[in-house]
Amino acid sequence: MYKAFAKAGLVMWLGTSSAALLAAQAEMNIVNDWGDGFQGEIVVINDGSEPLTDWSVSFNMDVDINNLWNGIIESQSASQYVVAAADYNGTIAPGAQVSVGFVAYPGGLAPAAVTVIGDDGGSSSGGGSSSSSSSSSSSSSSSSSSSSSSSGGSSSSSSSSSGGSSSSSSSSGGSSSSSSSSGSSSGSSGGSSSGSGRFRVDDSGNITKNGEVIPMNCGSWFGLEGRHEPSSDATNPSGAPMELYVGNTFWANGGSGTGRTLQQTMSEITAMGVNVVRFPIAPQTLDPNDPQGSGSVLKNHESVLVPSARQAMEEFIIAADANNIEVMLDVHSCSNYVGWRAGRLDARPPYVDRDREMYDYPREDTSCAATGNPDSVTRVQEYNRDIWLDNLRELAGLEEALGVDNIIGIDIYNEPWDYTWEEWKSLTEDAFAAIDEVNPNTLLFVQGISSTAGNQDGTPDTITQVPHGDEQTNPNWGENLFEAGSNPPNIPKDRLVWSPHTYGPSVFVQKGFMDVESQPECEGLEGDAAGDADCNIVIDPVSLRQGWDEHFGYLREMGYAVVVGEFGGNMDWPAKATLRDQARWDHIQPGVVDIQWQEEFVDYMVEKNIQGCYWSINPESGDTGGWYGHAYDPQSNTAGWGEWLEFDQRKTNLLNRLWSNSPE
After folding, report:
1. Is 14 part of a structural domain of the chain?
2. Which of 233, 367, 429, 609 has its CA 20 to 30 A from that of 499?
3. Which among 89, 124, 159 is the end of a domain?
4. Is 599 a catalytic residue?
């Protein structure tokens, strides 16, 4: 790996009608090369005295460009590329310049000479290029590209879950061109010193970068951790493909795609205020040759198709860095197949969704444990402490391997709800040691546990009850940090961020939501049982706040950094939920209770100066939906799966209220 700035020779252009007035030059720079691929930049400078309009550049380079921003690939013939201006930078004022960034494969190449073409077609061919310094390989991936197959339709994705959990629907995503500027590091504002190290927590519990406080305007963008295909999928029945969603599937618009790209979305979300993305992966995402991360199982349109999940992860991190977005890497499960169900590193059946009706997505055949599996298991993807720590070291090394500085931290394991506090505390200390030996500049995001443990340890008949405060305030999976304050892990406070998860009724109907005064028969019921009993739902701010205070809020008062790792929900619930949930909860007025919960939780976060990552930016989560709208509807438009709509204004308003309270 090297991070030299190799430059091609300058190329001049003089327009035929006004040669004395118009002039331009361009150069290609190799910003970063990691062996299998590189990040490049083309800088177009207007040295003339009049505006340069409708410009484009041409160059010859035997590469595959997978992602490009601040321009559009106008044409490609073999190795000859013509890149045109984007719609917002087609005019370059005298003395100004425009930078077009891209990611291409393979690496190890010298920058190419670039020709600038003006609005009248005049151009001049260019000088030679200078070679760059030698490179060394990183953990980057490579894999041959392939077209996708199988038809549109829904599949189950790993949004998040709670005490009873829920499944969700999903499909596909992608990557490539359109706007924004290159560079790195997030926009930071004002702030207090955080000591040494790039990312730190200051004495007030604020996260800093290079000593300056930065806000955590954060959302999750998922897909590479794996989804659950329906059993009827023509190419990959009941598979678990790992592919980033970008709202551009191969079947959209009769096969033409939607035109949406990774860069377009990054430009849109940064314009809306996002500066941090939580990015879920699975252990299998790191393997460039995993069959569920490449080949015909992928469903993105060919214009944004990335050959492997590993390559897609790396391209995302690099593109985020160029867009001033910090990335929180999230180890979301022990397995792309087991997904959200896993509450421990060596999770094994029985899982919480084993008995659901009208349900095509069980995983009783898959385990992350080498031993203690029931007879239903036919697929073992062994995971344990040692493999996990190796994965954490690999993730911690990505900054150096990719030549970026935007990996704000690692969310070390998603919703470890099946551990006792003592067990999870010990594992977090191991995680810190592994990460710190590789990268002392990043943070640990540590989630909470739940109310029970030992459900997935091979002895499902012996369950341990875990302290969480008042019994009526049952925590979500990942929410319970009740014991953390009195029994904290041995991790420096300036490297630790507590990151609980919590959700309202659209994800799981907790027993604390019951209207026991009007319906005493509903006391103690939750989940499907509460719906089957036609229980009403009441959002009680007093009891909610008591639970949040006990489970994690008190840690903020102790000076810790607290960033809620997941919150959100389907504001139309039970409308737009799965058909089984719409039928079960048809006695609940749509579009009321989950909005009430989300509004109450944001009020709480603002009051307590707690920040959070919204689940999710993309809309393919079946239980929460996304910030972007979704053309898909389980009743009226199943073919709209994976097609994104405009931002949900209700969620925009909610996030603006939260982010306006961010520290500066």
Report:
1. no
2. 367
3. 124
4. no
